[in-house]
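Title: Prediction job returns without error message
Component: structure pipeline
Severity: low
Priority: P3
Assignee: unassigned

Description:
Job completed but the reporter wants confirmation the result is attached to the right record. Sequence as submitted:
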Amino acid sequence: MTMTVLVAPSGFKESLSVTDVTQSISTGILRAMPDARILQAAMVDGGEGTTEGLVRATNGTLVPVQVTGPVGEPVDSFFGILGGYGPRTAVIEMAAAAGLSLVPRDQRNPMLTTSYGVGELIRHALNEGVEKILIGCGDSGINDGGAGLAQALGARLLDEQGAEIGRGGAELMWLHRIDLSGLDPRLKTVQIDAAVNWHNMLLGPKGVARVFGPQKGATPTQVDYLDAALQRWATVIRAETGIDVGQEQGAGASGGLGAGLLTFAGATLHPRFDIIMQYLDFDRLLAEADLVVTAEGSLDGQSPYGKVPCEVARRAEERGIPTIALAGTIGKGVHQTFDHGVSAFASILKRPCTLEEAIRDGDRLLRRAAEDAMRMMRVGLRLSERQQAA
């Protein structure tokens, strides 16, 4: 009997894109099981690679554009127009306009970086006459609460004297009033969905400035300032619109971009995998599978909290389908993944090596690990056949 294997991995940051990981695993599987039927669902999470992954999955089109980058300089960016039937849909990953990878290491100061380019991407998508927009939030280099996005979409953020404030998270401390009269009217004609980390809050001890600010270059003093600035942002938004972004799930996603999308773009925030899997047609593919193989750079005790392997495995487990997870590194608490659908896991590293070597040889290591896993699977199938024949 031909085995149907669904390959549903994440990308390996700085090594292989999610498309490359999917292909490497598929190649390894076929080396061990040449007659296997391979289904592919490149699992994107809203961060880098989301647009490319969804465009490929739907036979869509990638549209190159230039926008304002996170440090205020022009950057080459892009968005996608999805293929298939249904409403004309654009997909945007905020990282393509305001991602941390676009912030030079010597300029990593979230007091200054802006989400302005994300708003420009939305405007470019509106120019294409789309009816729906999916925005992926992840891998950000900003902490401006989506203020830059609001400015790019036509909102005027004013200080106490009625002058417009500048760009960047620090400028929010001077905010006094918001003028929405110039907001792009086309926003009311489209459905906008945002794929966010549902656990990211805008304010509080676990607010975005305190949890992620240091990763983006903020000093302890700057973290305190940014948190206070976002408090000011939330207060003015609530006074002007009635929306309490400080209490909204996912409003802290991508440096608070979730709050800006909710308030100014009229977006609906969704747990990222719940919305993205709809576009990947994941459930239909899963229904055809006998086995799932997933992968991510690291597998550990944090994996059950929104990481690709456990999100995939959980859904497979509901259908009684086993899942094998491959990872670059196996960390502390990894056995918790067994409680979230993972049936077996393995590291792709077979000997000690440097991080640089692992990144360089990622394709070969993944192909070999997938082949080894499937050869072990074949041993199990042969044993089962012998027991049934006995």
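Comment from assignee: result matches the submitted record. The mean pLDDT is 94.
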